[in-house]
Design goal:
By secondary structure, the chain is of the alpha/beta class. The chain binds flavin-adenine dinucleotide.
Length: about 325
């Protein structure tokens, strides 16, 4: 995956979407339809979250396989290492590589509620997971055998594609970081370990992103930093993300969502807020945008349409 800063007036802004594995069998069919609709828009990749401690492992891989087998879009697997042994994490990486997954978002993950930091396991940071992914892929044969269609038993030998490893970045600081520079230092460590790009935690103001990129660049971070943008379409969703991320309450958005009486109106507010963020960060030189899709295609595609990145949706 390659991201370059878009010159003004450039024809295409790279974009991608994040999904989570279905929570039940009944939501699987709906997710497949969402994948198809998102893939049809031509994203650079579709990423699938991974429950820390392996809680969604198999289901994450099923979604990634579906993307790989039914669309032309690159599947990107989130992987967490919290609570895992070194050997267990290596096994997991091999399982994903064997399934043909070549793009990862290497994360530390969080210990389950109530567990102490002692729960971390053998790998203590995402930087170590980046190194492990790199090492596991290096142990594999440098070529792969691809069946020749129409010629049973015949194979074509082709060099293996190198994995691409993304990492997380926190424009407003990780909620448990001791000081702001810790997050730039963590990003530098992840870059040194071999990360090829970063995706940010959601943020509410374009300056949060640009100030972070500026600090990261001044400290020596050179990898592309992709802004993560979430359309917030209800007060409940806003409360939930504030709880998860430790972000400050964006009062203007919170009030607008609170006073709007209809769900449609709240959805419009969330879309307009996210579209403005997309426009602003792209104008500020972001190498693309990554949208948290909440397993629905309509809202994120409308955000990109309103930001002028995609043509208006046909219904
Ligand atoms: P690291 O790179 O190891 O740490 C990053 C920063 O976190 C460090 O600078 C440090 O300042 C700070 N930090 C981390 N832990 C502590 C601590 N205990 N005390 C003090 N500072 C600390 N989680 C999932 O379980 N599954 C997912 O699929 C997932 N996807 C994500 C996608 C994105 C784009 C982002 C931004 C986050 C995602 N997360 C996911 C959450 C992530 O696992 C947590 O934020 C985790 O706490 C830190 O992971 P990391 O990879 O950034 O860790």
């Amino acid at each position: 995956m390659s991201f370059e800063t878009q010159p003004l007036g450039a024809p295409r802004v790279p974009f991608s979407f994040e999904l989570y594995p279905p929570r039940s069998e009944s939501s699987e069919g709906a997710l497949h339809e969402t994948v198809r609709r998102l893939a049809a828009a031509g994203p650079d990749f579709l990423s699938v979250t991974y429950g820390a401690g392996g809680s969604t492992g198999g289901r994450s891989l099923d979604v990634l396989r579906f993307i790989r087998e039914h669309t032309a879009v690159e599947p990107l697997a989130h992987l967490t290492c919290v609570g895992n042994t070194y050997a267990g994490a290596a096994r997991l990486i091999r399982e994903f590589l064997d399934a043909g997954i070549l793009s990862f978002l290497a994360l530390r993950g969080d210990p389950p509620a109530g567990q102490s930091e002692g729960f971390l396991g053998d790998l203590e940071s995402a930087a170590q997971l980046v190194q492990l992914i790199d090492r596991v892929q290096a142990e594999r044969a440098p070529y792969e055998e691809i069946p020749v269609p129409g010629n049973p038993g015949a194979v074509r030998v082709s060099p293996r594609r190198k994995v691409s490893i993304a990492v997380a970045a926190f424009p407003k600081g990780h909620p448990r970081a001791a000081h702001r520079t810790q997050d730039v230092e963590a990003l530098l460590a992840k870059q040194a370990a071999g990360a090829t790009f970063a995706i940010t935690q959601l943020f509410f103001h374009p300056d949060d992103y640009s100030a972070f990129v500026e600090r990261a660049r001044a400290a020596g971070v050179t990898i592309p930093i992709l802004p993560g943008i979430m359309p917030i379409t209800s007060p409940a969703r806003l409360a939930r993300v504030l709880e998860l991320t430790g972000e400050d309450l964006p009062s203007e958005l919170a009030i607008a969502l609170d006073v709007e009486p209809t769900p449609e109106g709240r959805r419009e507010i969330g879309i307009e807020w996210a579209a403005r963020l997309v426009r602003d960060v792209v104008a500020d030189g972001a190498p693309g945008v990554h949208l948290y899709a909440f397993n629905q295609h309509d809202t994120v595609l409308t955000v990109l349409a309103e930001a002028g990145i995609l043509p208006a949706l046909r219904r």
